[in-house]
Amino acid sequence: MTSINPKRVNGTLIKHSTNTQPQSQIERETIFLVKSSTPFVSALKRITKILNKFNKLSRTNKRFQNGDYKKVKYITIKGMGRAMEKTLSLGLKFQEELQYKTEILTKSIEVLDEYKMNKDENGNSESESDDEDKETLFQKRMVSCIEVRVWIKRE
Questions:
Q1: CA–CA dist 120, 135 (Å, integer)
Q2: Spatial distance between the Cα atoms of 133 and 128, rounded to a whole number of angstroms
Q3: How many other C-beta atoms can be found within 10 angstroms of the C-beta atom of residue 100?
Q4: What pLDDT does residue 12 have?
Q5: Angle between helices 40-53 and 84-92 (to 10 degrees)
Q6: What is the domain extent for residue 125?
Q7: Cβ(44)–Cβ(93) under 8 Å?
Q8: pTM over 0.85
Q9: Do 100 and 154 form a contact (C-beta atoms < 8 A)?
Q10: From the CA atom positions of the chain, what is the Rg in Å?
């Protein structure tokens, strides 16, 4: 793996997503990932629905009151890059208007970029059909990330 300057690479950039796949069933139900294209109101409603699952007064979701779900203390909202502002706005909405206790954490996450080179060894432009013959370069870079923890009200 070579370190390259992305401004000098004459190739096609293929961005890979981070490895943000939650590991367990509980993590899948308590982590909410925000993208820049996620609608704010829809995200607010979905996070509220997740928080309401853990409410003791809820009669429809009894499985979220027993076992390992009893140990869950907060819902995590994560956003990277352009989605950080939306993630912070969601956290502030829950803190100020809905009166939830929130914590905001900042992180840096390593992502991998892939570059497919456009030119062959003679400097000639290659055709689109020669994708498998193109040289591939990988570069790691750090991306900033925000994690907002919204603490569950167990009433």
A1: 8
A2: 10
A3: 20
A4: 80
A5: 50
A6: 11-151
A7: yes
A8: no
A9: no
A10: 21
Tokens for 89?
């706005």
pLDDT band at 6 (very low <50, low <70, confident <90, very high): low
What are the tokens at 152? 């569950």
Q: In the numeric block, which tokens belong to residue 39?
A: 């609608």
Beta-bridged to residue 34, according to DSSP, are: 79
pLDDT tens per residue, range 50-81 = 998 887 766 666 667 777 778 889 999 999 98
Residue 5 lies in a domain: no
Per-residue pLDDT at 15 exceeds 90: no
Q: Is residue 97 part of a domain?
A: yes
Structural domain count of the chain: 1
Q: What is the phi/psi pair of residue 114, to 5°?
A: -115, 130
Contact 6, 13 (CB under 8 A): yes
Q: Is residue 33 in a domain?
A: yes
DSSP 70-126: GG--EEEEEEEGGGHHHHHHHHHIIIIIS---EEEEEEEEEEEEEEEESB-TTSPBP
Domain of 33, CATH number, reads 3.30.110.20
Identify whether 6 is part of a domain. no
